[in-house]
Amino acid sequence: MNMFIDFYTLDLQYTEIYQIQLRRQAKLQSSLCENSLHALWSDWSLMVDVPSGSKIRRTPVIRWVENNLTNGTRDITLSWDAPPDNESVGGVKYNLTLSVWPCTKKQKGMDHLTVTQTYNASITYSEARISIFATNNVGSSPRKQIIIPAVKHLNYCDSHMSSNINKAMKTCLEWYKLEDGETRPRTVENFVRHYYFLHTMKKNHYKTAVMCPFYSKQRAPVNGPANVNISDVTHESAVVSWSSIPVVEQRGFLQHYVIWISGQGNTSKPKVYKFHNVSAHKTSFLIKGLHPGASYTISIAGRTEAGTGPNSTVNFETQSKEMGTETQSMQNEK
């Protein structure tokens, strides 16, 4: 062992308990042998206990629950499990960092040191980043980071939230792509729905004042509705249903669905009817005024302010008048 250095590394067993004492030898003159009786040693130091237990090897697993969402903030409860007993000897502390300040180019973190396994925080409606690592007498665990996503996206602007904003308030604006809710693009893409948050700040405390989806530029939907189906067919009516056009395919705010029907068969001549526009929130429509025993083709498309997208079509036949009347009688008897 080299006596002229101030540190030395020892390999110790996790399952053993150690105590250490040190003493020091004075620097010898060159004319004296190292084993000479003239070698000067210090007294032994006080006995020191080596921290026992194991280093925390597992990354903490964070769970979170949203307890309350009101007035532009939401209360979050964070929780995590303690390390195993052999890693908790001597106590464990948890280092928690919350990056919850919106609109900052560099995320501002709030650091907290706690010995408990829960923590309550109040955050805005936008994304928050939480990280944690555990520390014992031996060392620290790997750091774990989670992202608490933004509040569930709306399909409309919440006009009630903006009533408490005044010119004296300090505000900031941030936005996300609506599809994933986590990216913060530097620029806004055309034909892609984004989602913005307007935050107000008072005494260094932020809350969300407005949430709203938006497009920088819109186009017609790229596809028509999927899964178009016909049901409840009678001699004079039928129900058409479909799946909503996904947001990524809408490329704009969907205003309504447009339904066309063309008829042939025993009608005197083919006719094309343009039905009422159907609300964008609906996925079915009752078609009335059809002819008995006739063949029909239904086309349905979504429409934004930029235009109407491609059609999805389905074919069907109405019942004969006799069969339709019989079916109606059976339903009335039930």
UniProtKB/TrEMBL annotation:
Keywords: Repeat. Residues 303-334 are annotated as: Disordered. Residues 224-323 form the Fibronectin type-III domain. The keyword Nucleus does not apply. Residues 309-318, 325-334 have a biased composition (Polar residues). CDD domains: FN3 (cd00063). This is Si:dkey-13m1.2. It comes from Sinocyclocheilus grahami.
